[in-house]
Amino acid sequence: MGFPKKTLFLLLFFIFFTTHFSESSSSSSSSSDITTLVYKGCSKETFTDPNGAYSQSLSALFGSLVSQSTKTKFYKTTAGNGQNSITGIFQCRGDLTNSDCYSCVSKLPVLSDKICGKTIAARVQLLGCYMLYEVAGFPQISGMEVLFKTCGTTNAAGRGFEERRDTAFSVMENGVVSGHGFYATSYQSLYVLGQCEGDVGDSDCGECVKSAVQRAQVECGSSISGQVYLHKCFISFSYYPNGVPRGQSSSGGGGQNTGKTVAIILGGIAAVAFLIILLLFARNLMKKREGRLLTVEDGLLWRQNCS
Fold it and tell me: pLDDT tens for residues 148-181?
């Protein structure tokens, strides 16, 4: 007894559809999450560029940074010569793949030009990566300088949250040193992540992250989430009352939650589709069974009439 061709086709179609759509949705949500703008810093001074030298240097710099993002998660280089030279950096979050790193960094040149224009220095931070450039002689700032911070609007209910958060922070502070600049972990429903600029030494990285943690403790209080970006490092934390989502890897949680919602919807669709296919298969079996019984009964009746 073979499997009905129509039913087999429907089964294969639904398997392909749900698998393909699930993968596409997961990839899409992940990609959109890491390219979300966090903050931007643009110099108020623009290029004085009568012969186009700065523009050429900046274009060459962007091209070099983007091309390197397929191979590494941190890169620093200089384009141009003398007074026309421009130094640039990109860095991706330590848990991204090379493919995701490139997807993130490749958005930055156009975005930088759109929101900052032809300024002599700019820094654009996305959730998954950032890019910085500055002309020769641009004033330097301390690595501990606060560039941006944000604290969630929801506060943790009940007692003990800040103690658990501070324990998670302590683990992270040690982790970024042993992890050579990047560390992420979950602890009692808290997810924490810390990262330093790629050319910062382990000891200085620990001090930078510690400074960012102190900022978060003072300024975010009992908020269930927050991000603090210093010039040479950043930290983020998120509290999930029902437990950290499995496979959590981003400083936010939106992408993972979206993925879970899509998975639940697709699971429901697949279950309904499979039930329909089973019913169709059962109906086909019943039709064949009825046909055979009718043939046997007709044969008996014919022999009775002839006897």
Answer: 999 999 998 778 899 999 999 999 999 999 999 9
CATH of domain 35-135: 3.30.430.20
| CB-CB contact of 43 with 121 (8 Å) | yes
CA geometry: angle 96, 97, 101, nearest 5 deg: 70
Is-above-0.85 flag for pTM? no
Confidence grade of residue 280 (pLDDT, cut at 50, 70, 90): low
Which tokens go with 136? 């020769």
Residue 201 phi, psi (nearest 5): -65, 160
The answer to whether 222 touches 244, Cβ cutoff 8 Å, is: no
Helix (H) or strand (E) holding 168: helix 161-178
User: Which pair of tokens denotes residue 57?
Assistant: 């240097």
At 252, which amino acid appears? G
CA–chain centroid gap for 158, Å, is 30
| Spatial distance between the Cα atoms of 68 and 92, rounded to a whole number of angstroms | 11
CA 145 to chain centre: 26
| Strands ordered across the beta sheet of 74-79 | 37-42, 121-126, 129-135, 86-92, 74-79
Residue 245 three-state SS: coil
CATH code assigned to 146-252:
3.30.430.20
Q: Which amino acid is at 94?
A: G
Q: d(Cα 113, Cα 117) in Å, to the nearest integer?
A: 4
